[in-house]
Amino acid sequence: QDLRIGIIGVGQMGADHAERVVRRISGARLVAVSDPDLPRANALAESLGEIRVIEDPLALIGDAGVDAVIIASPGFAHAEQLMACLEHAKPVLCEKPLTMDTESSLRVVEAEHKLGRQLIQVGFMRRFDPEYAALKQLLDSGELGRTLLLHNVHRNKSVPDTFRSEMIVRDSLVHEVDVARWLFDDEIARITVHAPKPTSLVANGALDPQLAIFEMANGAIADVEVFVNFQVGYEVRCEAVAEKGSATIGLGVDVLTKRAGQWGGAVPEDYRVRFGTAYDVEVQRWVDATHRREIDGPTAWDGYAAAAVCTAGIQSLQEGRPVEVEMARKSEVLG
Ligand code: ISE
Asked: Which of 78, 272, 329, 332 lies at a 20 to 30 A Cα distance from 301?
């Protein structure tokens, strides 16, 4: 029996997931979409076949014809929609951020825990990228000894005008927050976010680029350059430095061409291109796990931890100093 999926939010990411579910995912079928922009939802539904448009996202979640939900709405809408998924016991793949603040993320974690079943998976898709997965495997194998440092670069070609300093932390830097927690298998204890003199090419007052330092609980350190108006294209790199070697991913060495007196390759336009495979693997594994009544990826707790780090990161950016990350103890919340 195919998993009947409903998607909430059909902007860039939601539309991308809709196409993915229809064209590339097995064991699942897209049955409904919801978006406040009705013409946009109607156009997408029509282009993909027989798909219902349900205007109210909460009605989509409660609909008896929807077995599982993908939330790709803006972050501020997540808390209410996640709670509704838990109420209706619907498995949900929720795009990051889990919610907009530490408290509401913790409430989501607690509500899910009360149900006694994990229904929430968070869309930190980098864990499913073949390059990141290989890096994780290499570091975990111990071949290089203990991992000491991570150097990360995260650049977007450009972002909409509404993408301000806080969003750079909660929507972009949040990926490295998860990557660092995942690769080190440890929590981030302290974060500092520096803001160099911003690029002159954005006029919305956003502090872009930013340079973040994560101090892990066990003493390791990660640094991150995040620059969302890089102009050139999308670039995500990670170098791990360990006791007996280093490993780098994201060099973008695809097809090397030589022409007109120059050599080089292509820079992806955005994350849908660079992480296309990661999204495919993520959604397929989520569908397969949902059939088994499980999840298979980042948990609500991971979303909560990331929210706590981002909250501290924003405070650091505003106050110009390192900020301790305040979060509950896992054992106290999850028993
Ligand atoms: C976007 O929302 C994403 O999640 C991308 O993965 C990230 O690289 C980008 O910076 C964000 O704008």
From this structure: 272
H helices of 49-173, in order, are 57-62, 78-87, 102-115, 130-141, 165-167
Answer yes or no: do 145 and 249 share one domain: yes
Q: What is the dihedral of CA 280, 212, 155, 259, to 10 degrees?
A: -110
pLDDT 10s digits, 222-272: 999 999 999 999 999 999 999 999 999 999 877 888 999 998 888 999 999
252/9: higher pLDDT: 9
What CATH number is given to the structural domain containing 101?
3.40.50.720
Please tell me the distance between residue 158's alpha carbon and the centre of ligand 1 in angstroms: 10
Q: What separation in Å is there between the alpha carbon of 260 and the centre of ligand 1? A: 33
- Name the residue at shortest CA distance from atom 11 of ligand 1: 172
Dihedral (C-alpha) 269, 274, 280, 283: value to the nearest 10 degrees? -90
Nearest-CA residue for atom 12 of ligand 1: 172
Q: Are residues 55 and 82 in the same domain?
A: yes
Render pLDDT for 39-58 as a digit per residue (tens, 0 to 9).
999 999 999 999 999 999 99
pLDDT at 318: 96
Are residues 16 and 43 both part of a single domain? yes
Decide: 227 in ligand 1 pocket, CB within 6 A. Answer: no
Which atom of ligand 1 is nearest the CA belonging to 234? 8
- Using the atom order of ligand 1, give the atom closest to the CA of residue 163: 12
Domain co-membership, 226 together with 286: no
Nearest atom of ligand 1 to the alpha carbon of 96: 4
- The whole-model pTM stands at 0.96
- Ligand 1 atom closest to 125 (CA): 6
How much distance in Å is there from the Cα of 174 to the middle of ligand 1? 9
Count of structural domains, the chain? 2
- Cα(234) to centroid of ligand 1, in Å? 10
Contact 268, 253 (CB under 8 A): no
pLDDT in tens, 10-37: 999 999 999 999 999 999 999 999 999 9
Cα 137 from Cα 271, distance rounded (Å): 23
> What tokens appear for 129 in the block?
């990228």
CB 68 within 8 A of CB 3: yes
Residue 174, pLDDT score: 98
Q: Which domain holds residue 18?
A: 3-125+277-298
Which protein residue's CA is at the shortest distance from atom 9 of ligand 1? Answer: 172
